[in-house]
Design brief:
Blueprint (H helix, E strand, L loop, with lengths): L3 H27 L9 E7 L3 E3 L2 E3 L3 E8 L3 H30 L8 H17 L4 H62 L5 H17 L2 E5 L5 E5 L4 E4 L2 E2 L2 E5 L5 E5 L14 H37 L13 E2 L8 E2 L1 H5 L18 H7 L14 H41 L3 H35 L1
Antiparallel strand pairs: 1-4, 2-3, 5-6, 6-7, 7-8, 9-10, 11-12
């Protein structure tokens, strides 16, 4: 349409387009602090011109559906880094608790207790028939056994806590997967009608980001706009609006393995390679059992060496020495043998029956075990073996901390880069707002002027 009425239509289209621009700008400003929000832009397009007596005549502008400014590649990078961040965050927190179990800063550390145990044997060497020295040795031996058992048992509630965290995280993953499935359906319905489901897509990206912190996933988008979410082994977690459910089952150790609800007998622990689940499972099932096993080896090493040497000696009564330690850490009964506890004269300090009670040769042999190479295939002393354990824990904590810091920095860098692309700049939005406002005012002026022209034309008739 050309002529005055065509100008009026042009003004109306311009008014609508500028209004749409103001609406989108206002939406951006309102969400300037909304996590995960991608700024939106209104697409203005020249409308189809018409042929007039003087040639082609423009008919104005139209506002197409707004689009979000988003870089999919950056989004995938953030997802991948989040998986590693979640893993090391969980592992760092758990290992810091492990480190407190081997706390040697207090007066009750295992290293100090072992030292007092060996010193007590040395005191007995100086006075093998002394009742005070024997009672002191008994007390230090009971303290050592208690410290070993207590340290070992401290791992158990930590494993139980990690087990609870794993089960709770599986439930949270299922909730996020259901949320993604619901958003998929909304996006398909909206975009099937030719619209852009910008806000739904932002919400879905945030849900995928949250899942990535918990478990490693891969995503790919269908032509319909639906986003499929798979675990790294290819198993489908979300397919369109349909979701698969994760669950847990008790393993032989009594802890929970991650399984599919549809197949609850098969653990998928070994296929999980990222997220908090990976960190917690690795600490619970590999790292902690390793430290517990090392502690058992140390306790059994001291128990075996002392018991063997003690059995070669004689007590104050001239009788052959019996076992000095009994029980195991795993059995929760590691202790000084009941016979020794009941009667300290049964401590075999003498090397011969005839030498009792003044002979101290067997006490010397046991005291010298402190410096004997009897651990790590006879390459380390008991003290060196334990110090190596403590050092290993510290190294693991530092490594987890450095990995956590690295991936935190990477996620921060990528988030900043994403914000530079998709974030809302208030300065830029203010400029846009002024531009659309001026455009709106001009369109209104065009309509007003056209109306005056029409009134003049009507009055001429």
């Amino acid at each position: 349409m050309s002529g005055i009425y065509g100008v009026l239509q042009t003004g109306m289209r311009s008014l609508q387009a500028q209004q749409r621009g103001i609406e989108v700008t206002g939406h951006n400003i309102a969400n300037v602090n909304t996590p995960g929000y991608s700024r939106q832009t209104v697409n203005l397009k020249t409308t189809t011109p018409v042929m007039g007596s003087q040639g082609m005549i423009g008919t104005g502008v139209t506002a197409r559906e707004s689009e979000r400014v988003y870089d999919r590649f950056v989004g995938v990078q953030i997802e991948n880094e989040n998986e590693e961040l979640g893993r090391w965050d969980a592992q760092k927190t758990a290992l810091e608790r492990v480190e407190t179990i081997f706390d040697e800063s207090s007066d009750s550390g295992l290293s100090k207790t072992m030292g007092e145990f060996w010193n007590a044997w040395q005191d007995l060497v100086n006075n093998p028939s002394g009742n005070v020295e024997r009672l002191a040795l008994l007390g230090n031996s009971e303290t050592l056994a208690f410290e070993f058992q207590n340290t070992y048992n401290k791992f158990l509630p930590l494993q139980a806590d990690l087990d609870i965290s794993i089960a709770a995280t599986v439930d949270e993953i299922n909730l996020k997967a259901a949320e993604i499935g619901d958003l998929n359906q909304k996006i398909i319905e909206a975009e099937g009608g030719g619209l852009h489901a910008n806000d739904f897509r932002d919400a879905r990206d945030m849900a995928v980001k949250d899942i990535g912190l918990m478990i490693d996933v891969t995503t790919y988008e269908e032509s319909s706009g639906s986003l499929n979410v798979n675990l790294k082994d290819g198993s489908s977690l979300v397919n369109g609006s349909n979701t698969s459910t994760l669950s847990t089952m008790a393993n032989d150790a009594g802890y929970r393995d991650v399984v599919w609800a549809s197949d609850p007998t098969v653990s998928i622990n070994n296929t999980i390679s990222g997220g908090k689940l990976k960190g917690w499972i690795e600490v619970r099932d590999v790292i902690i059992p390793g430290y517990m096993s090392n502690l058992e080896d140390l306790a059994n090493g001291i128990k075996g060496a002392v018991n063997t040497a003690h059995g070669n000696g004689y007590d104050l009564n001239g009788d052959v020495g019996g076992a000095f330690f009994s029980g195991t850490l795993a059995g929760n009964d590691f202790a000084v043998h009941a016979d020794i506890v009941a009667d300290s004269t049964k401590i075999a300090a003498s090397g011969t029956a005839l030498g009792a009670p003044g002979d101290n040769s067997n006490a010397i042999a046991i005291a010298e075990l402190q410096n004997a190479l009897m651990m790590n295939s006879d390459t380390a002393t008991f003290d060196n073996y334990y110090n190596s354990m403590v050092s290993d824990v510290g190294t693991a904590v530092r490594h987890a901390g450095m990995s956590y810091d690295h991936h935190t920095a990477m996620v921060g860098h990528l988030e900043n880069y994403r914000e530079s692309i998709s974030g809302v700049s208030l300065d830029e939005e203010m400029v846009n707002l002024i531009q659309f406002q001026l455009g709106y005012d001009a369109a209104a002026k065009l309509i007003s002027t056209t109306d005056e022209l029409l009134q003049t034309l009507i009055n001429m008739v």
